[in-house]
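User: I'm writing a short methods note and want a consistent example. For Matrixin family metalloprotease, I'll paste the sequence; you return only the structure tokens, no commentary, since I'll be parsing the reply automatically.
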Amino acid sequence: MRTPSVTAAAVALSTVLVAIVSTSVGVAPAEAASTCSGDRITVRDLGRGCAVERGTVTLPDGRRFVVPSPGTTVSALPVAAAGAVDPGDVSITNTGRSGVAVAVEGEWSGAPAAIRKVRSLHERLTGGGTTAHPMAATATKPAPASSCTNRTYALLGYRWTSPVRWSSNPSGARATDAAALRAAANAWTGTLKTCGRTITSGAANTYLGTTTQAPAVTANGGCGSPSGASVTGWGSLRSGTLATTCVWSRSGVAVEMDQRYTTSYAWSSSATCSGARFDLRGVATHEWGHTYGLGHTAQASGLVMKPASSQCDLAQRTLGLGDALGIDAAS
Ligand SMILES: [Zn+2]
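Assistant:
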């Protein structure tokens, strides 16, 4: 239920450029900025250093996230359709008393004390590596083979300490999904023979079958409340976004992932893909790369982890050199 705001915080909100932040606000008054709550917290509110027990934060781009419980990070990892703008990776970390830190494409905002803590942890977990996040390509070119010359990868800063136990929800699926999703999950596991190399991956998953539970990925590309179960499913997403993965982690250890694939485009899960369709197995291989802890490489890398996919990009089913080196480092 939205409540018209009469607090001082609403004055600050009116200067925020996002029209989505309208008349409702649940933050504490500015003079008592030690806590923020409600369903309309802004990044500017977080910048005052407030602690968040529960609430929903709206990013300047309109994506909304249920703030994770203290000690938890939630990451949202989209993949764009080629020609669309990549909305960018998001991670939101609730440090408890030090407030909430937000990173969008490596740009930090939120509570200064939280940013200091989270950045230092993130640099330790990723080896200090920075991630380049170019926009999606503006032209749809023929899909290249996954690159065996490009060695780049990016680590997101979390890893799994046990196999990812997951289920799939086929409700609304635009293509037969379980086999394609399982092949994608398994593309990163076991003994990988990639580009003439043999790499033993530590990534692992256990498929539990179908479920009626919905993934906690929201239609605007944000992440909802984690359920404790990792689920893939289908639903609307913003135009230009093919899929989004949300991962929850605590001190660098992933505890849940959810994936949503858009129902707004046509998909294929056949061995050969044709027409104006996106290849579910290829796009899902990318989403599983995120699930296992990999971020984006440059679009020109030709790797699975490039940020945007073309139609029938069958090459995205197969790991390139950087993808294999990345999963070796991430698992
Ligand atoms: Zn992605």
